């Protein structure tokens, strides 16, 4: 079951079970700057893989965490925002989530609540943060407190993809949290699903044996 | 030989892009009218803009004109070919901060992003800028923070 949720033929999401692989997803309205933030963080490494059938863009990155090398896949949407909702495969096996809004557009801040709700339906416990982008447009916003993050107990960053303020800091911290989470997962969603799957199989085998017994038992009576 | 671009615009008949520039050798202001050929009402504006920017006869003059601006001018030309009024065409570039951009089709969304690009490019720090810092960190003083009006009680849904 777990794997049919994550089914994208071009992408084997099982790889995210490997110890040195993490998946980080970006959420937020159209045009808040999700892709520009990725570009700013990755700079020369910037080589996105477009999966247009799934309205999805993937960015690969290699990070050093402690003394380990970790392969990070960033998942960015390429138009799925239009449906105000993401396909379940987007959330599947994600280890962290970066939620972005545009400080110039209130509606993108208000919509965070919807994105967050959907995220928590699929991934109740993964680390998540709130990113206020485009502060270069109006530095005064950094004097204001945006209560959504505080209410949800999420880290909050003022950033600008244009001039680079706090972009790298935010990404590095989220990579660390993704790796941490992976080592000590506090939600066993995926694992539990897989165990359930095996459990179902075992039960079926028992049942079929039981049915055979019943048939044998019944046949004499029929005769 | 130097050209300093000052302004640019469009002319509908025949479809052309107009550039006002200063010839730096003579310090004289000049106008250059660049006819846009092989461009029709279903042509792709970003391809056409790129073609123009790299055109051997014009590229020297257009060096300082950003690609997205050339793209915007092509969109205005194309809108005219499709029968849209200049007013409506220009209005489509305006940003309404309350508009839900999630609902737009690709092309419309690209316009809005094109509009946002003006400020983005102006504030952008590039890798080859002398004061570029890759991992720029800025702390903002939280003690002076004021409550954000976006969090007002009236919309407590958040
Ligand atoms: N001023 C400013 N504009 C930005 C910034 N980040 C993005 N933008 C603008 O917002 C537009 C949309 O950004 P994009 O990354 O495509 O948004 P996405 O739809 O969330 O991926 C871009 O075309 C830029 O013009 C920023 O930090 N500052
Ligand atoms: Mg994007």
Automatic annotation (TrEMBL), chain A:
InterPro entries: P-loop_NTPase (IPR027417), Small_GTP-bd (IPR005225), Small_GTPase (IPR001806). One of its GO terms (molecular function) is GTP binding. The keyword Nucleotidyltransferase does not apply. Keywords: GTP-binding, Nucleotide-binding. It holds the Pfam family Ras. It comes from the Eukaryota. GO terms for biological process: cilium assembly; microtubule-based movement. One of its GO terms (cellular component) is cilium. Residues 200-223 are annotated as: Disordered. NCBIfam families: small_GTP. Belongs to the small GTPase superfamily. Rab family. This is RAB, member of RAS oncogene family-like 2. It comes from Xiphophorus maculatus (Southern platyfish).
TrEMBL record, chain B:
InterPro entries: CEP19. Keywords: Cell projection, Cilium, Cilium biogenesis/degradation, Cytoplasm, Cytoskeleton. Pfam families: CEP19. One of its GO terms (cellular component) is centriole. GO terms for biological process: microtubule anchoring at centrosome; vesicle targeting, trans-Golgi to periciliary membrane compartment. Its main location: cytoplasm. The keyword Cytoplasm applies. It comes from the Eukaryota. It is found in: Cytoplasm, Cytoskeleton, Cilium basal body; Cytoplasm, Cytoskeleton, Microtubule organizing center, Centrosome, Centriole; Cytoplasm, Cytoskeleton, Spindle pole. Belongs to the CEP19 family. This is Centrosomal protein of 19 kDa. It comes from Xiphophorus maculatus.
């Amino acid at each position: 079951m777990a794997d049919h949720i994550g089914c994208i033929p071009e992408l084997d999401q099982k790889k995210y079970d490997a110890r040195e692989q993490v998946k980080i997803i970006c959420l937020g309205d159209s045009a808040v700057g999700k892709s520009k933030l990725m570009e700013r963080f990755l700079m020369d490494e910037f080589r996105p893989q477009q999966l247009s059938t799934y309205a999805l863009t993937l960015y690969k990155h290699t990070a050093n965490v402690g003394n380990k090398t970790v392969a990070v896949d960033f998942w960015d949407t390429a138009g799925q925002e239009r449906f105000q909702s993401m396909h379940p495969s987007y959330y599947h096996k994600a280890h962290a989530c970066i939620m972005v809004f545009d400080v110039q557009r209130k509606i993108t801040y208000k919509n965070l609540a919807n994105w967050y709700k959907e995220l928590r339906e699929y991934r109740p416990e993964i680390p998540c943060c709130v990113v206020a982008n485009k502060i270069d447009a109006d530095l005064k916003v950094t004097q204001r407190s945006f209560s959504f993050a505080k209410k949800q107990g999420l880290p909050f960053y003022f950033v600008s993809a244009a001039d680079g303020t706090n972009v790298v800091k935010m990404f590095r911290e989220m990579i660390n949290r993704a790796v941490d989470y992976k080592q000590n997962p506090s939600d066993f969603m995926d694992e539990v699903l897989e165990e359930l799957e095996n459990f179902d199989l075992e039960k079926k085998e028992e049942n079929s044996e039981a049915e055979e017994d019943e048939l044998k038992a019944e046949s004499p009576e029929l005769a | 030989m130097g050209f300093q671009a000052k302004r640019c615009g469009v002319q509908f008949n025949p479809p052309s892009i107009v550039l006002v520039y200063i010839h730096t050798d003579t310090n004289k202001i000049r106008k250059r009218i660049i006819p846009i050929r092989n461009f029709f009402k279903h042509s792709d504006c970003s391809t056409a803009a790129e073609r123009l920017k790299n055109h051997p006869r014009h590229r020297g003059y257009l060096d300082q004109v950003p690609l997205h601006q050339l793209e915007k001018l092509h969109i205005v030309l194309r809108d005219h070919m499709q029968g849209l009024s200049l007013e409506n065409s220009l209005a489509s570039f305006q940003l309404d901060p309350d508009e839900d951009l999630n609902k737009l089709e690709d092309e419309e969304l690209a316009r809005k992003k094109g509009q946002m690009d003006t400020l983005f490019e102006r504030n952008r720090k590039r890798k080859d800028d002398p004061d570029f810092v890759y991992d720029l960190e800025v702390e903002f003083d939280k003690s002076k923070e004021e409550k954000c009006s976006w969090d007002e009680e009236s919309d407590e849904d958040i």
